[in-house]
Design goal:
Belongs to the VAMP-associated protein (VAP) (TC 9.B.17) family. The chain is of the alpha+beta class. Helix content is 41%, strand content 24%. It folds into 2 domains: 120 residues, Sandwich (Immunoglobulin-like), CATH 2.60.40; 63 residues, no CATH class. The strands form 2 sheets. It has a 5-stranded mixed sheet, with no helix packed on it. A 4-stranded antiparallel sheet has the order 1-3-7-5, with no helix packed on it. The N and C termini lie far apart (167 Å).
Length: 256
Amino acid sequence: MGNEELLQIEPQELQFPFELRKQISCSMQLTNKRDNYVAFKVKTTNPKKYCVRPNTGVVMPHSTCDVIVTMQAQKEAPVDMQCKDKFLVQSVLASPGATAKDITSDLFNKEEGHNVEEIKLRVLYVAPPQPPSPVREGSEEGSSPRASVSDNGTISASEFSTGTRTHAEPQVLRSHAEAQGLKSNVESVDNSSEVKALISKLTEEKNYAVQQRNKLQQELDLLRRESNRSRGGIPLMYVIIVGLLGLLLGYILKRT
């Protein structure tokens, strides 16, 4: 951009690392290399989709202002990841010492004779940054050691990493053995728990059988006692009846 422009804007394109259902922000920097105060205003063709902070302001002489543009979370991806949205940055000379409160819409009205400069920015969707890939130790294990010592006796990084892996292998084996032992202990605990549960169940069934046996024994004893009382009552009644008949017969014979 030429020095005749009121504000220099970087970057010239607003790039958003597009991701669904996620707010995404990018920034642009407004630079004023003049000796004058410059007021600015940021517009967009899709104001419901973007939030601009600040969207108006004043850039003091030989200073910069950062503007943050936030795209609201999108539910659908655009076709071919193409975006037709655009931004317009208007700038105009402001009075010395002006602040954001002094900015009015009339200040950017060309019909009133204001020299308003306009710069258009387009929007691009780019792929989101990929997370760093983890270090693959397997590829290093297959490689031959490349130990070297510098002139001052310092061990190289390749030798250090090889030594570290050699020292770490027994620890990995021990950890694996401990894990296997822990697994065996867990299985033993599980088997022991099953045996205990089976013993408890058998004990409960035994106690129930004993209770039923005792109950039947009590009922049998009760029946025996009632039967004995019944058998013991029949001879006594027989004796009484025979006695009464004897007395009655004797009384009849005596009167005759």
